Amino acid sequence: MAISGLVITFNEEKNIGKCIDALFEVCDEVIIVDSLSTDNTVKIAEEKGAKVISQKFLGDGPQRTHGLPFCKNDWILNLDADEFLDKDAKEFILKGKYLEGNYDAFSFRVKNFLADELIDFSGWYPDHKVRFFNKKTAKPSEAKVHQKIETTNEKKVAVHILHYGWESFEQIIAKKNQYSTWHAQQLFDQGKRVGAMKPVINGLIAFIRCYFFKKGIFNGIDGITIALIQGFFSHMKYAKLLKLQRQEKLLKR
């Protein structure tokens, strides 16, 4: 079965070349939906043989959905620019194991790396993501942040995606801060409202879960740092939601 690689990008000149080369190992075409990058992402992608569609960022889910009509094949491998298939995932696809059974989407395990160090604690492994699906019956959700694939018959498989998302703790914090803003707005738009203690309670719960129950405590300074970052994300998501609620009340007055 032919497979289309689909990637959404914004200023990914560092990763996009390697990403496209890796996708062409299992795909017969690669579609890039680019959010008006200001670096060399588009130039590199086109030189590597990918088809580039320029589209102002619509949100995580809608941006991916926008690219589907440009994919000529039904099976879609939808990775981010900093994600690569591990050897077991390549074998799973190349040997056609995804055709065994009536499944329309597959959830792979994700190995998250900080620089070249695998973060396999604080709930970061096994982290599951659906990145491989049949667009006839499965598709990205409309969520603008942390979208999921809407599927009728998903299967989890013990093969891996390698995610090289961060070079430093500073980058993790910056991304988590950005995601918290998007997530707060999404919750607000959905009509979600919370009380004043929600940020504190959820931040503490997230830290305790990651540090004590997800093995962060056994991983030294990195373990406590990752757990604190997870707590920070949870706290800020709801703190920003509270701010939106207060702004709404002021406007009504």
What's the short version?
Residues 6-94 form the Glycosyltransferase 2-like domain. The chain has 253 residues and is α/β, with parallel strands linked by helices.
Unreliable runs: none
Please estimate the helix content. 25-40%
Order of helices and strands: EHEHEHEEHEEEEEEHHH
Report mean pLDDT, rounded to a whole number: 96
Structural class by secondary-structure content? alpha/beta
Q: Which value, in Å, is the CA radius of gyration?
A: 19 Å
How many angstroms separate the termini? 59 Å
**Largest sheet report:** 9 strands, mixed
Number of helical segments? 7
**Shape, please?**
globular
Beta-strand share of residues: 15-25%
Count of beta strands = 11
Descriptive account of the structure:
With 253 residues, the protein is of the alpha/beta class. It is 40% helix and 24% strand. It contains seven helices and eleven strands. It has helices at residues 16-23, 41-47, 60-67, 87-94, 169-189, 198-213, 220-252; strands at 3-9, 29-34, 51-54, 75-77, 83-85, 105-114, 117-118, 127-134, 139-140, 149-150, 154-166. The strands form two sheets. Strands 1, 2, 3, 4, 5, 6, 7, 8 and 11 form a nine-stranded mixed beta sheet that branches. Strands 9-10 form a two-stranded antiparallel ribbon. Helix 1 links the parallel strand 1 and strand 2. It is globular and about 55 Å long. The mean pLDDT is 96.
